[in-house]
Every structure is written in C-alpha cells, then in structure tokens.
Amino acid sequence: MTVLFDLLKTEIEAQGPISVARYMELALGHGEHGYYMKQDPFGKAGDFITAPEISQMFGEMVGLWACVVWQAMGSPDPINVVEVGPGRGTLMADALRATQMVEAFEDAARVWLVEISPVLREAQKKALAPTFMMPAWRDRFADIGPGPVIVWGNEFFDALPIRQYVRADDGWRERRVGLNDERDGLAFILSMDKIDANLIPEEVQGAPIGGIYEDQALSRVIMGEIAKRVVEHGGAALFFDYGHGEHAIGETLQAVKSHDYADVLKNPGDQDITAHVDFAQLAEAARAAGAQVFGPVPQGAFLERLGMRQRADTLMMNANPEQVPEIDAAYQRLTAAEQMGSLFKVMAVVPPGFGVPPWVE
Ligand SMILES: C[S@@+](CC[C@H](N)C(=O)[O-])C[C@H]1O[C@@H](n2cnc3c(N)ncnc32)[C@H](O)[C@@H]1O
Ligand 1 pocket by C-beta < 6 Å: which residues? Predict the structure, then answer.
C-alpha cells in the first residue's frame, strides 16, 4: 500500500470510517501524496487522456465559442478568461491561439487558471509560454479578480469529491470508507446512522434497496460561486464532462491507472478517481444562484455545430499524408456517439436575459 494509506489508516483509527468525499479529497488532493499533487497523469504514458490532449481542435472550438460569447456580451474590456482544472494547460493554450483572430479579445483578456496542483501549474506555465499571455493562478474560483468572466472547464467536476448514500430498508445511510478486517487495506462500510432524507432528490427517493445516490456537494458549491459571478458581473460559463442529465441511482465512482480500470480503494494517491457528473445537480446549483442553464447537449453535436468538421478538413488539407488519418481519428473520437460524442456532455450557464448561448440548445 501507499504512504497515503498509512495516513488514511491513522485518520480512520482516530475518527472512525470517513466519507467517500474525504477519501477522494485526500487521494486526489493531499498536499504531498495526492494523485494530482505529485504527478502529471495525462497522455499515452500517463493514466488517461482527455479531449484537449486528443486534438488541438477541441481547444480551438472553445476559443471560438469564447469570442462569440464575448461579442454577445458587448465586448467588455477587460474580460476575465478563466479555466477551472486546466490539467496540462493544453486547452487554454489552443483556445487562446484560436482567439488571436479577434485582436480586441486578445487585448481585453485577463487569463486565470484555477488549479490546486503545483506540478500541473508548472506544465500550464510551459504550455502558455508561446501565447505570450501571462496567466494568474488561484486555488479557488472564488479568488478570481472582479469583473465579467468567461469560464470553462473540461473534466473538472468529475474529479471533485462526492458523498455516497445507500437506500437501506429503513431509510438512507452513508457509505463510508473504513479498514478491512485484517486492517491492512480499505473497505466500504455502511454507516449505522440514518441521514436526513431531504438530502436525496424526490425523483430518486423510491430507489430499490441497495441503490446508491451520489451527492456532488463540492461541485454544487463551486458551480454556485461561478453562477453567482456570472449573474452579478456578467459572463458565461461552459462545462464539458461525462455523466447524466437527470438525477440517477447507481454507483459511478471509478479508478483508472495506466488506461485501465482499477480498484477504487487500492493504492490511494497512485491512481485517478472520478465519478460521473450529475448535470441536474449542477444545474440546480446554478439556478439557485439566479443563472440560466442550457444543455446538457451531447459533446459531438456541440462540436459539430461549432464547425469542427470544417476545421478537421482544413487541417487535413495542410497536413502531411501520415497525419491525415490521425486528424480524422481524433475528430471521430471527440464527436462519434459510440466514442466521446454522447457520454460527454456540454452545459452552459449565463445570466438572465442573455438569450441562448451559441450552440448549447
Ligand atoms: C481530470 S483533470 C482535467 C484536466 C484538463 N481539464 C483536461 O481536460 O485535460 C482535473 C483537473 O482539475 C484539477 N483539480 C482537481 N481538483 C481541483 C480543485 N479542487 N480545484 C481546482 N482544480 C482541481 C486537477 O489538478 C486537474 O488539473
């Protein structure tokens, strides 16, 4: 087991089983031993690959979206351009390159990266160097400077801690993480105490015994902060993630190591842990802050409406023969329903009166 396992064991022995949220928080974000804090997990040599790492076209489409939205806002100067959970910085770098065609946007943009990982902040710095845009880093969205914002995030909410509640025969109980019988590993444990049934949305109250509801408490808080900013200062936000549009019952917590699924409770700190995003929870948090929500729409449809097919054709025309099939494969991977085009979804958050944000309807 890992160093982090020893730390978790100490905490569990002192306090009893911890919530799944606390487990994720430490496994991913522990200051020294957390998965995101000590390594760059992306790419073929890493544990998983994300849309911006598949092709530059993804970030370019986001940059194009940002320009159109900025113009719809009346071209405010300055405009805060914010990415939450920017990974290697590839998406921001590709998006900024695409926005260069609108010179006034480039001049107005103040770039912010909301990132907790020091290793990834270094990677982001390198990725953005050729754009000559000097970003400012923050740990939390709430610390972004004042003024209107254009915010985006890809696979950000799926990395945030969730709590799990299980339908028992006499109500709902929390699923927690404790020690196994041998005390040399972790195990899921059902809490003895019942939780307040009001935490469970009405639509899923009638779940079968054993059914799991995943509560995205931290995601709701962060979405609330973003929506409040958009409503009070103007702006728009766009989120890509994999998940479902309605509240649902089912366990989606998963671990990935070297592009393969792994046991969630094994090797904490050495493998990625995510959960599917419940867009309905995000939408409720945004609406509670007074914002309008559009989508989620399938990622494939969104990218196609933005003109990614045409962009792929242009890149292919200018590419050497070996690159042509790679560009086409990347296009297919990002947009085809059986690949990332359907499970991945896009949701936009705008202030009241903004109208329909481009291509998210
Ligand atoms: C799955 S990665 C996605 C990276 C990138 N958006 C991409 O598509 O390649 C999640 C990102 O969110 C960051 N992250 C995780 N928890 C965070 C938090 N609480 N606040 C800010 N960033 C966080 C990670 O360090 C990482 O950059």
Answer: 29, 36, 42, 50-53, 85-87, 91, 114-117, 120, 154-156, 159-160
